């Protein structure tokens, strides 16, 4: 690397103080303390220039989002963040980019009590590659696993759906609207808020959970497959983002059922716990909607307001789909 060494970059942009209970950047390994009776939850996500983000993406937003999508996985497991690592492959040293990226990353790292404790920094040939690993802790037997949904569970979704998806359609020019204000929707795409508090509160209460990154039907489908069950979804109960009520029917359906990048939690809970779920949601200040039921068969049916089965859109995003 020219202009500065790999070590200067780490020192200047990434090394930050960590709590006394841990060892952070600078040794061969980081050391973390795990609370008694807890298990470590670990998750990694990779972001590649041109595939997950456009080359001109604002570096601050990119830094923020590369940690946010990982924290969302901890939330979906019911885990509390402990620490994260960041591996970066950069074709050249661009201090403006590094400054912005680090600022976005550290902002969320601090806000979510997830200190950066290590990583790797290397040179790539062409594209920027970002890989983040998060570690969290969750009480033994309280993790929100995908394979623990049970027939009869209610299915719930946090927050609202569709805003990030429609923002992307507007950015890509695939949908034009003079009613929608881009400024209202863009934050959902650029600054997803990982539902960490909700996830932690659901651990030990919900049976199964997943975060909606690739679209509701696809992500719920992972729970159904892992748990060997089916679902009935009531289309009218899906929480469409309030700004999207004027959408044409087909776009609305895509936004609700297949729209990715929502980073809301979809979780399944015994029906007798419905009031408890509402109380948790109220305490945290995030709305939750009961959208359907887990069934004993292996189909996923979406019912319209009259109880008729709907033709649903192709499932969400798949990197290797042709
Ligand atoms: P090693 O030779 O043991 O792999 P490195 O020289 O790659 O160590 O890294 C030195 C220290 O800086 C290590 O503690 C490593 O975890 C940390 N580090 C490297 N890159 C990053 C980064 N992008 N963000 C945070 N920490 C980093
Ligand atoms: Mg290294």
How many DSSP E strands? 10
Oligomer designation: single chain
**Biggest sheet record:** 6 strands, mixed
Order of helices and strands: HEHEHEEEHHHEHEHEHEE
Task: Give the N-to-C terminal Cα separation.
Answer: 37 Å
> Mean pLDDT, as a whole number?
94
Contiguous runs where pLDDT drops below 50 for at least 5 residues: none
- Inertia-based shape: globular
How are the strands of the biggest sheet laid out side by side? 6-8-5-9-7-10
State which percent range the strand residues make up.
15-25%
Question: Which structural class should the secondary elements be placed in?
Answer: alpha+beta
Q: Which range best describes the helical content: under 10%, 10-25%, 25-40%, 40-55%, 55-70% or over 70%?
A: 25-40%
Radius of gyration: 20 Å
Query: Helical segment tally?
Result: 9
Bound molecules: adenosine-5'-diphosphate, magnesium ion
């Amino acid at each position: 690397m020219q202009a500065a060494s790999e070590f200067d970059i780490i020192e200047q942009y990434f090394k930050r103080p960590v709590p006394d209970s841990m060892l952070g950047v600078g040794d061969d390994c980081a050391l973390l303390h795990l609370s008694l009776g807890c298990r470590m939850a670990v998750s990694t996500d990779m972001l590649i220039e041109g595939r997950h983000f456009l080359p001109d993406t604002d570096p601050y937003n990119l830094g923020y989002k590369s940690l946010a999508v990982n924290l969302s996985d901890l939330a979906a497991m019911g885990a509390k963040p402990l620490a994260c690592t960041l591996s970066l492959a950069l074709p050249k040293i661009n201090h403006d980019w590094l400054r912005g990226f680090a600022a976005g990353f550290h902002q969320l790292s601090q806000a979510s009590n997830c200190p950066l404790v290590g990583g790797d920094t290397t040179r790539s040939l062409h594209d920027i590659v970002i890989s983040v690993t998060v570690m969290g802790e969750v009480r033994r037997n309280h993790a929100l696993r995908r394979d623990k949904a049970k027939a009869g569970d209610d299915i719930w979704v946090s927050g609202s759906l569709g805003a990030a998806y429609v923002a992307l359609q507007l950015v890509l020019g695939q949908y034009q609207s003079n009613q929608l204000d881009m400024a209202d929707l863009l934050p959902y795409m650029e600054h997803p808020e990982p539902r960490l508090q909700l996830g932690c509160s659901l651990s030990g209460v919900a049976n199964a959970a997943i975060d909606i990154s690739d679209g509701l039907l696809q992500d719920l489908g992972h729970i159904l497959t892992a748990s060997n069950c089916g679902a009935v979804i009531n289309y009218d109960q899906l929480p469409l983002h309030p700004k999207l009520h004027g959408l044409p029917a087909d776009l609305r359906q895509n936004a609700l059922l297949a729209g990715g990048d929502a980073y809301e939690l979809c979780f399944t809970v015994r029906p007798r716990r419905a009031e408890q779920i509402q109380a948790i949601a109220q305490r945290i200040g995030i709305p939750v909607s009961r959208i359907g039921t887990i069934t004993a068969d292996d189909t996923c049916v979406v019912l319209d307001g009259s109880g008729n089965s709907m033709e649903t859109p192709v499932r969400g995003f798949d990197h290797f789909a042709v």
